[in-house]
Structure formats: structure tokens, C-alpha cells
Amino acid sequence: TTEIYTEQIVGSVRCVQETGTWGFKVRTNQAMENKQQHKDYISQKVHPIYEKMLVDLLVSKPDDVILFMIEWLNTKGQSFKQSNHAYDSDEDNDDEMEDIPKDKVQQKKVQRAGVSAEVYGTWNKKEDFKPRVIPKSEDQRKRINHRLSQAFMFSALDEKDREVIINAFEEKRFKPGQYVIQQGQEGNELYVVESGALKCYKKFPGDTEPRYLKTYQPGESFGELALLYNAPRAASIIAESDSVLYALDRGCFNNIVKEAAVKKRQRYDDFLQKVDILSSMDPYERSKIGDAVKTVKFNKGDYVVRQGETGNTFFFIEEGEAIATKSLQPGKEPEQVYAYKAGDYFGELALLRNIPRQANIVAKTDLALVQLDRDSFTRLLGPLEDILKRNFSRYEKYM
């Protein structure tokens, strides 16, 4: 369960900070009446900036999204003129913040107010969540599982959570010209495209007609922003051809998918902090690696890589031991040339020099590895290239 770290009272809104994210829960009838004021603030102050930035983000598709957004705000963001007065809630609202009785919570779901990520605490307990189960054929399950493997959003799911999500997906079909979502409407589902093509349009302030942004293809997903931020749909999606989509409800997304991503980052950050070569990286840089890696497991005696193969993956040893073996003379059996333990790494030689694997790596015990693909290795570990090359000496006598 998620712990509450910070709690403040701001006007008639109880603000709870959990794992770095601010969520808002309105606790009085008077505060509920301020919902429209909160929406107006978001619409007038935040959306004009956010929408323009989102379009540039989709067009540029930068590897480092956060750096792009910071630079965008420092440049293009300066052109937005914000009003000098703060957006205040009703100053006369001094209703007391009384606790909601437990029996009321059980009878009726607490209404969401304002714009926030879903928050769990006294009035919204995570353990009360029960994922939906929608019957489906074995063929449907296989197709959904295949699409999940293509979507980065679901990469943090373990086998158990993956099974829950597959059970919760609902297959929906749309005809050409049919709206899947409409800008401004409430959103309670995200979608993964199984087949067909769907066009995305957005109407910006001052425009008379919506602008075309992109076409969604099989394997892509959309609709998660409304679930993450409890905001209206930011754009419209229209089926261009007969389309089959898989829809996932808000509850499963927030309780399973988002929670798994948080757990994955925490787990890998704990491990990566213990890797000596990453000691010079700050927490943000390590978190980017944590988002990009995944764990693979091997049994004792399994080959992780073979001498002469093309190498496209870099590995850290999370648990277990491995050995490197190499045929030092043609026709001779491979000999052990190196031993690896938890916290060690291998595979960098093929990536940095763009050469085939120079040795076999064999699991000496059952092995859990954290792997990073070639693109992520170059993008995220580029600053460490000199350190990695410094360790080439351990291989040179065997090359």
C-alpha cells in the first residue's frame, strides 16, 4: 500500500503528497461547488501552455522528454502571458474538514474533484479495489498479450499483474468515421490498437477547425492522460478504417499499471545504486536507466551470449554468478577466462566497438540479469563511455 508522506490543508481542499505526486481530495459540500472553478483554472491557465507543448513534443519525439519540456518552457513558454493575480478559491469558505465516515465510503465511491492523479488514503483504500474480469477466448488473450509486449506502458508488469490486465481488457470495434474519444469529454478508459488506423485531431484555442496530429497504428496506445491526471480528453480520436481496440478501465490502470511502474523504478533504483560504475550518476540519471531496463532469468548452465554472435544487449548481474569462456585456439574447447558476480556487468565490448561477442557467458548458478538494449545503452550510458573503455584491459590478453 502507498504511504502518505505530506498532508496540508489549502482552503477547503485536502492536499496529499504520495510518492512525489500531488493529488487533491475535496472533503466538504462547499468545496465540491468549487469544482468548476478548479476546471476553469486548468482550462484558462494550464491547458493553453500544455497543449502547445504537447504538439511540439509529439512532432519532435525527443529521447529526453523532461529536458525537452524544460527547454521548451524556457523558450516558447515565455510567450504566454499569465495574469498577475492568483487564482483563489472562495475566501469566505471556512467549512470544517470533517472525516468521512467509513460506512459512507463503502456505500458510495468518493467523487473525484479537480485535476489529479488517483490518490489512495483513508477515503480511497487500494485494498478495496477488485479488478474486473471480462471473459475472452484463448485467441483474444494471445492477441492482447502480444500487444502488451509492444507497448512500453505495460513493460513493468510482472506475470501476475499481466494476467490481471489481460482479464480486464475489453475488445471494442469501431467503424470508419466513428469517434473513439472526443476532446473535452470525461475519460475512463485507455485503448490499445489491435487492428485498423485511427486519426487524432485537436482543436486549439482560437482555431475554428481541429488540427490533425497523427495516425495511431496497431500496437500503439492512447487515452492514458485522462486517467493519469483525471482531466478531460485532450484530443479526439476517430477511426479511419474498421478498427479493433482493447479498452482498459481507470481502476485497473491506476491500481495495476501505474503501481507496477512505481514499484519497478524503486526496485531497480535500489539495485543500480549498488553498481560501482553508476556511482557518478545522480538519482534522475539512474531513474532513466531503471525505466529502460528489464530483468531476464537463466538457469544454471544456460548460455547468456555465445562467442561470435552479434551483440545488441548490455547486462548487469542482479543475482547469481556467471563465467566467461573463450576458445583461445581454433578447434580447442573453450576455457574460463573471467568470473562475474552480482553487481558486475558485461556485453559492453560488442556495443562500444561494434564487433561480435568475444566470449561465451555461461550461468554458473541460477542467474537474474538486468538488461539494456543497444539504443538505451548509447543514450543513457554515453557519459560513462570513458569509464567503460578503461576496463577493456581485462579482456585484451584474451583478444
| Helix content estimate | 25-40%
Discrete helix count: 13
- Indicate the radius of gyration in whole angstroms: 25 Å
How much β-strand is present in the residues? 15-25%
Which residues form runs of ≥5 with pLDDT under 50?
Answer: 1-28, 81-124
The average pLDDT value, as a whole number, equals: 75
Main beta-sheet annotation:
4 strands, antiparallel
Identify the overall geometry.
Answer: globular
**Helix/strand class:** alpha+beta
How would you write the strand order of the largest sheet?
Answer: 4-11-6-9
Cα separation of the termini: 51 Å
Number of strands: 19
Topology:
Blueprint: E1 6-10, E2 13-18, E3 21-26, H1 29-32, H2 35-60, H3 65-75, H4 102-107, H5 138-150, H6 159-168, E4 170-174, E5 179-181, E6 189-195, E7 198-202, E8 211-216, E9 221-222, H7 224-229, E10 236-239, E11 243-249, H8 250-272, H9 283-292, E12 294-298, E13 303-305, E14 313-319, E15 322-326, E16 335-340, E17 345-346, H10 348-353, E18 360-363, E19 367-373, H11 374-381, H12 385-390, H13 393-396
Antiparallel strand pairs: 1-2, 2-3, 4-11, 5-10, 6-9, 6-11, 7-8, 7-10, 12-19, 13-18, 14-17, 14-19, 15-16, 15-18
Helix pairs in contact: 6-8, 8-9
Structural write-up:
The protein is built from 13 helices and 19 strands. The model is unreliable at 1-28 and 81-124 (pLDDT under 50). Strands 4-11-6-9 form a four-stranded antiparallel β-sheet. It is of the alpha+beta class and 399 residues long. It has helices at 29-32, 35-60, 65-75, 102-107, 138-150, 159-168, 224-229, 250-272, 283-292, 348-353, 374-381, 385-390, 393-396; strands spanning 6-10, 13-18, 21-26, 170-174, 179-181, 189-195, 198-202, 211-216, 221-222, 236-239, 243-249, 294-298, 303-305, 313-319, 322-326, 335-340, 345-346, 360-363, 367-373. The chain starts with 5 loop residues before the first strand and ends with a helix. Strand 1 (6-10) and strand 2 (13-18) form a beta hairpin. It is globular and about 75 Å long. Helix 6 (159-168) packs antiparallel against helix 8 (250-272) and helix 8 (250-272) packs across helix 9 (283-292).
